[in-house]
From TrEMBL:
<dbReference type="InterPro" id="IPR020568">
    <property type="entry name" value="Ribosomal_Su5_D2-typ_SF"/>
</dbReference>
<dbReference type="InterPro" id="IPR001247">
    <property type="entry name" value="ExoRNase_PH_dom1"/>
</dbReference>
<dbReference type="InterPro" id="IPR050080">
    <property type="entry name" value="RNase_PH"/>
</dbReference>
<feature type="binding site">
    <location>
        <position position="86"/>
    </location>
    <ligand>
        <name>phosphate</name>
    </ligand>
</feature>
<feature type="domain" description="Exoribonuclease phosphorolytic">
    <location>
        <begin position="158"/>
        <end position="223"/>
    </location>
</feature>
<keyword id="KW-0820">tRNA-binding</keyword>
<dbReference type="InterPro" id="IPR027408">
    <property type="entry name" value="PNPase/RNase_PH_dom_sf"/>
</dbReference>
<dbReference type="GO" id="GO:0009022">
    <property type="term" value="F:tRNA nucleotidyltransferase activity"/>
</dbReference>
<keyword id="KW-0808">Transferase</keyword>
<feature type="binding site">
    <location>
        <begin position="124"/>
        <end position="126"/>
    </location>
    <ligand>
        <name>phosphate</name>
    </ligand>
</feature>
<dbReference type="Pfam" id="PF03725">
    <property type="entry name" value="RNase_PH_C"/>
</dbReference>
<dbReference type="GO" id="GO:0031125">
    <property type="term" value="P:rRNA 3'-end processing"/>
</dbReference>
<dbReference type="InterPro" id="IPR015847">
    <property type="entry name" value="ExoRNase_PH_dom2"/>
</dbReference>
<dbReference type="GO" id="GO:0000175">
    <property type="term" value="F:3'-5'-RNA exonuclease activity"/>
</dbReference>
<protein>
    <recommendedName>
        <fullName>Ribonuclease PH</fullName>
        <ecNumber>2.7.7.56</ecNumber>
    </recommendedName>
</protein>
<keyword id="KW-0694">RNA-binding</keyword>
<dbReference type="GO" id="GO:0000049">
    <property type="term" value="F:tRNA binding"/>
</dbReference>
């Protein structure tokens, strides 16, 4: 039995509320159970120096956790003078995951920055950030297309992510914090809506895993990403 009482292949309740901020070109609040992340997308008429003049666009991301997003207060990274290694790793993951679903030539020479701020954490914050980040990105692109700044849709496919792991010897979908902290194996799976894989992060946390177990987790991840993609498309009106 999972601590939450969910079935092994059951996601936490997912909701995506769009247009939650006034100024950002795209925004949403994604809730996966008790993990809540605010995602905003900002369009800028510039690109990093290494692609300037190429005609290609760029999508990048920043990630952060609010001080009381967890059970005890964390110091703001700005107050410590630098970002932690975990933060840097996660925001790079979000950026390269979202870029995998973008036709950068169709985007044109502009940059979209997706900011993911964790309001409340209960496991799977990077997965929620990627999933909500795509919605914010989509809304920003819709504005570009509505104004005629972009004529061909640069978004190839929804990009979504979900965690899976081995908990109490069983493969489970969408780990919350009590499961994540006790799982013998946990992984993050980032995919396009059609099941094509972008990135997989799997590690043993005190127990090894077999090829069969890995395949079981991949099957669960495909199911979870399909459910998330449906929620994404519903949120953006497609």
């Amino acid at each position: 039995m999972r601590p939450s009482g969910r079935q092994l292949n059951q996601m936490r309740p997912v909701s995506i509320e769009t247009n939650v901020t006034k100024h950002a070109e795209g925004s949403c609040m994604i809730r996966m159970g008790d993990t809540h992340v605010l995602c905003t997308a900002t369009i800028e008429d510039r690109v990093p120096p290494f692609i300037k003049g190429s005609g290609l666009g760029w999508v990048t991301a920043e990630y952060g956790m609010l001080p009381r997003s967890t059970t005890s207060r964390m110091r703001r990274e700005a107050a410590m003078g630098k970002q932690g290694g975990r933060t840097v790793e996660i925001q790079r993951l979000i950026g390269r995951s979202l870029r995998a679903g973008v036709d950068r030539s169709a985007l044109g020479e502009r940059q979209i920055t997706v900011d993911c701020d964790v309001i409340q954490a209960d496991g799977g914050t990077r997965c929620a950030s990627i999933t909500g980040g795509w919605v914010a990105l989509k809304l920003a692109v819709q504005k570009l297309m509505k104004t005629g700044q972009v004529t061909s849709n640069p978004l190839i496919s929804p990009v979504a992510a979900v965690s899976c792991g081995i908990y109490a010897g069983q493969p489970v979908l969408d780990l919350d914090y009590p499961e994540d902290s006790e799982a013998g194996v946990d992984g993050n799976f980032i995919m396009l809506a059609n099941g094509q894989m972008i990135e997989t992060q799997m590690s043993a946390e005190g127990a090894t895993y077999s090829r069969d177990q890995m395949n079981q987790l991949l099957d669960l991840a495909e199911q979870g990403v399909a459910e998330l993609a449906a929620a994404q498309l519903a949120a953006v009106g497609e």
